[in-house]
Design brief:
Oligomer: homodimer
Distance between the termini of chain A: 34 Å
Helix content of chain A: 25-40%
Number of strands of chain A: 14
Radius of gyration of chain A: 19 Å
Order of helices and strands of chain A: EEHEHEHEHEHEEEHEHEHEHEHE
Number of helices of chain A: 10
Largest interface: A-B, 63 and 63 residues
Strand order of the largest sheet of chain A: 1-9-14-13-10-11
Structural class of chain A: alpha/beta
Shape of chain A: globular
């Protein structure tokens, strides 16, 4: 490899990143499953908060909720409402009714997946609860597509949500504390995204899924999610390129979840080290959901970040013919406050799906 | 229906249980997936703590760890070690090596699935993280079997864990507080169970999976998990009976996860109401893991409860020919402390798999 690497050239922050080779691929190691009968994304909806609505892709969201509590007593209840709204909206968008949906696959950031559970309680659908932090949207799409491709179900709803105020309360400090945020921090997106997958239809097809491995390069700063997650994105992206026999140029868009500005710069560097140049067709949802004037530092994070951007801006452009083939890699930091207090570093994961028109 | 129902006859505790009909089945509602190429359980391991080792099924467990911290600094680290030990043991039991396992599907009770994530970090396998509380073992078996049946992977490890001390810290009170337990409480099992599923082999076959719906009959007492979960077990059991065209008599064993004495009595009552009598072939893992002298009141709970009993006592008896066909319904209470503080009731779920020799 003759590429000259400038570590951290773009980001000016590499102290926490231990640059090491990705996990070895053994002969039987295969992360990608291909779908012979690729399921369609027939319906979608993205619901976000006011701040997200004012961001660069704000015009693409289906619903913008100005009140962070959405008329409820708690932020948690508002989060549940957003997830419900996105799921119901995506079902309508697919011209289906709730009774047509045979399986619901959701997850969220709250302990014990409370938003998912309370939403599933109201919907009479079999439910699979997932957790891979902010990688939940692509994990749910991967499992949903795998189940439809195998003929187990015809219609599956996949969704996730996050909320700035509930995430701050749970993972960092109560908002009332007024804690200062470091410059490498990200802002948890208040938003939900839902996709309805169907066996037939006219929407974009999910043609393969690459299931991620848990990767930990030694970052232990709860505020620096981008640096923690970039190696996991690299690991999955490398496996996806290799196993689908593609490279960056084969995609109209490579979309990561919520690495933010810093994390996506690190991913570019890490991929360069491995011999892959990520060009203008690589964007990160966390990097485009807010603009610099919104004081979100490195950008957005949270399970709802890529779920809402994928189900609005990205799939909208895809339906209009602007993108024909995209790779979507949501990225999740699997840390808990308890394990960080106990001195552990942050394990991360990224699941990928390829979506084609 | 001419059955005379004696509500709570066996349990003497029905105040919290709102007896209501199970969710309506719509025409397109189908919870069961059938496996034409049923995957085999080729390897298994159960690791438990000292208390579980002294219980009625103690002799069946593969490894009994006497030190609750297993030589580690924290209970959480010990929990991670137990899960790792069970997974590695089950891989050896299947006469395979780690590099043969193509997918790892795990979940646990800790916030953000910390045990699962830290175990997956050490194993170079694609990882799917699940959460359905104490129903995680059957959720992972369902997804694992579905993926093998569809030909996506040949070898999948499915595992879960729980630990009394970490669960008390997270869900109730620190142990040091010496909180009194009410008589309807259960005891979180310290234990892990892992099953290795393979495409071929000689072990028992998973022939179908019935994915549960989230059910909430209005219980809001964090100590009364059995009463909260029984309606979810009923819902899934009814769907399984209906969709597989079977009844209680068709199984050598119907095994619920961790309803405990009280919860399994409630399940018997609820099923009677629906016209099904559960006889001597119905047992609950939580009900058999401790004996009354161990002061665990209604019995065991936790994701590791049914995972360890299934992967030892039950599959051992199956391999010896004592059981030919069993239905395994792990049961999960999806409450979080946060949602309970906010006045919510406890949503529950139960996923089922049918295992045949």
């Amino acid at each position: 490899m003759s590429i000259t690497l400038h570590k951290g050239e773009n980001c000016g922050f590499t102290e926490n990143v231990i640059v090491s080779p990705p996990p070895k691929q053994t002969s039987k190691s295969r992360q990608t499953i291909f779908f012979e009968n690729p399921p369609r994304i027939s319906g979608r909806m993205a619901v976000v908060g006011e701040k997200e609505g004012k961001g660069p892709v704000g015009a693409y969201f289906d619903k913008i909720v100005k009140d962070a509590k959405w008329g409820e007593k708690t932020f948690e209840r508002a989060e549940i409402d957003m997830l419900m709204c996105a799921i119901k909206g995506s079902i309508s968008d697919a011209d289906l009714s709730e009774t047509d949906v045979q399986l619901l696959i959701t997850g969220d950031l709250l302990n014990q997946l409370t938003s998912s559970s309370y939403v599933a309680r109201e919907l009479s659908m079999p439910h699979l609860g997932l957790y891979s932090a902010c990688s939940t949207m692509s994990e749910s799409l991967a499992i949903g597509a795998a189940f439809i491709n195998a003929g187990y179900f015809d219609t599956v709803a996949c969704a996730t949500v996050s909320h700035f105020a509930t995430a701050e309360r749970q993972f960092r400090y109560p908002l009332e504390y007024g804690c200062q945020r470091p410059p490498y921090a990200q802002w948890t997106v208040t938003g939900a995204g839902s996709s309805v997958l169907t066996k037939d239809g006219k929407g974009p097809r999910i043609t393969s899924a690459t299931l991620g491995k848990v990767i930990d390069f030694g970052t232990n700063d709860l505020n620096n999610m981008g640096a923690a997650m970039a190696p996991a994105a690299m690991s999955t992206l490398l496996s996806m390129f290799k196993e689908t026999d593609t490279s960056g140029d084969d995609y109209d868009l490579i979309l990561t979840g919520d690495l933010g500005k810093l994390g996506s710069d690190i991913l570019r560097d890490l991929m360069l080290e491995q011999g892959y140049y990520l060009g203008q067709n690589y964007i990160d949802c966390g990097n485009i959901i807010y603009d610099v004037t919104q004081k979100c530092y490195q950008g957005g994070s949270g399970a709802g970040c890529s779920a809402s951007v994928l189900n609005s801006f990205v799939l909208d452009k895809m339906e209009r013919g602007q993108y024909n083939k995209i790779a979507y890699l949501a990225t999740g930091a699997l840390m808990s406050t308890q394990s960080c207090y106990q001195g552990e570093t942050i394990p991360c994961i990224s699941h990928a799906v390829i979506i084609e028109r």
